[in-house]
Model the fold of this input.
Amino acid sequence: MDFNEIIATGVGKDKSIGTVVGRVGAGASTYCRVSTDDLHGRTRSYAGEGEVTSGTLKSFGGYGVVRIPDLQHLLQYLCNNAYEHHVCVSYGNRAGAIADVLRAYKGWEVYQHENAKHC
Done:
């Protein structure tokens, strides 16, 4: 854990603590984004699975290289639906469970990316 380099430039290091820093280890992974749609008064989300690879990358903060099946389709969906680019990532394949929970318990709209299938 360290300070966020980008936020620190605006508010100072002492007010930007809490960023995970370093390369993410390789393995199966799940990503998820939760967003508010303020124009329509709703919360929506997307989730999917991929694999963090051991590919090299020169960056800062928390970073890694991820292989996502049918990435072009996912990117089109994100752009067409005005999603932000940051996501939460965890190890393991859990997208189905996350999507089920967000739909059932929160009532949120969830797109589950599975090789171009809409769920």
